[in-house]
Here is the input.
Amino acid sequence: MAIRIINVNSQFEREPLVRPFGFKGGYMSEIWQAAVLLQSDDGFEGMGLGTQNVLWSDKNVFVSNSESAGNSIMFAITNHALNVIKGQEFDNPVELQDRIFNEVYEYAIRITGQPRLSKTFVLNALVPVDNATWILYSRKNGIDDFDQMIPPKYRNILSYRHKKVASIPIASYGMPINEVSRLVDETGFEILKFKLGSPGNQQEMLQQDKSRLEEIHKIIGERKVSCTEDGKFPYYLDMNGRYESKDALKALLDHADKIGAFEQIKIVEEPFPEDYKVNVNDLGVLVAADESAHTPENVAERIELGYGAIALKAIAKTLSTTLKMAQTASEYSIPCFCADLTVNPILVDWNKNIAARLAPVPGFKTGLLETNGHQNYRNWNRLRSYHPFSDKDWVHEKNGYFELSDDFYKKSGSIFEKSDHYRSLL
Here is the structure.
């Protein structure tokens, strides 16, 4: 059923962070929340949210501009996409995004001045637009259920039903070790995402990362958990492309083996720069692709290089692209899990809809969902109040897990509900 878009609108809010958030050798101090509204010629509307992350999606854009300028550029790309789709008809969101992507990407290259701009940067800018098209599509077709919203060709990859999903907070390289210990001992988290790739040149980075891993292992290495098959505390390491050679990563893994931490490394995410293509089959750990996987073709390429998992980010690369990526991974029998973009509480539940329906990663007994907004936003409780179901148990992490009741699945994690706050902006 064709849908014609006749009106578009957008707005954003700047949300400050508790402290500068360090990764990829840089730091950011605020995150922009973008909101988009689409209206069809027959009176239906769809609203979508997006969280912008310039540093994560393309570091070159981040370092070439002030923080605010970088965010302004990404928001300009969002608005360009809205101008492109205004007046157009579409049958489903995946088809619409495929149709407009190249034009939006070419515009993004021009305004960033980056001829090798990461496609992930553009996908990040397209998230609120894509989310809005999914809601508009659902309204037009009388759909109020996440499973029914997903096109039939993708439903088999999202057919699992977890009763609980592990909530994964982040431990940046600047987080004091006593805070790491507190996350485990006092809050009950059973898996943390450790940011490595410390600031400095490659030698300095490697030495700091070795020391950091050793420090972590001494503090929490003996903890027992229920989320892994072996009951040992899992180490999920994210380098964000900072390791420029396979030898450097092997040196870190050799050190992990020396200190007895190697077998607890369950995931090594995005260790190398995107254009460094080397086979990782012989490293002895599960290596996952994140930023380097923009498209199904990228997913296939990384899998051929020995990558054993794909980090899905519907809240960073659009739901439309995520479905195609997950399908490609499924064709290779490669597992997927959900990583965060330090998103707001409403987008956490967009991501949770995916995490709840993905089969477990080998070695784990539960679904995995990284979410670190509660650690990093200065006004997290206020952001949570914008959630239409902020009082529901499944919105809140408890003892390191999100408990997913039938009510969560029945309400599709709230994605079809209107947020009065964000709607008022538009």
Summary: The longest helix spans residues 119-140.
